[in-house]
Specification:
Blueprint (H helix, E strand, L loop, with lengths): L2 H15 L5 H10 L67 E7 L5 E6 L5 E4 L4 E2 L4 E6 L3 E9 L5 E9 L3 H5 L1
Length: 177
Amino acid sequence: MTRATVAITLALALSACGGDEHQDLKKFVDEAGMNLRKRVDPLPEVKPYEPFTYEAFDLPDPFKPRKPEATEKNAAERPAQASDLRRKEALEAYPLESLKMVGTLQDKSKKMFALIKTPENNLYQVRSGNYIGQNFGIVSVITETSITLKEVVQDASGVWTERTSSLQLLDEEESKR
C-alpha cells in the first residue's frame, strides 16, 4: 500500500468516529436560547436639568463644629492666667484627682482649715479662698468631711464653664497609703 492510501483510510476512519461526540452540547446550545425574551424595554424618559440656587448663606455651615451659645447660666469668665498679678499657689501644680484630704483643723474663731496631702506626701493647710488643682479651683466651703470648690474649665468648643467639685475626707486606712 502506498502512503496516500494509508493517509486517506486513516482520515476516513477518524471522521467517522467524531460525528456524535458533541451532540449533547449542540442540543444544549439550541435549547438555551429558546426561552429568552427578544424584546428590550425602552429607556425611561430623561427629565431636563433644573438648576438650584443656594440662598442659605446666612445659615451656619453644617460641616463646621458649632459652639454652643454662652448663656448667663453656663458662661464663666476666663480664669486668671500666669500673666495676671496673682501668684500661683503650691496646690495648683497638682491635678485635683491626685490630692487627698486627710483632716481638718479649727482655730479659736471657729474658722475651719483642711489638711491636703500631695502625691509626694507633703501636707498643706487650706482655707476658703485658696486655689487648688489645675482647673482654677477656688475653695468655697470646708466641712469636717469634705472640701467644696468651684472650678472653671474649658469645654471642647472653647466655652469656659463653672463646675462644682469636691474632695472627701479619707478614712484611716486610705490615709496610710
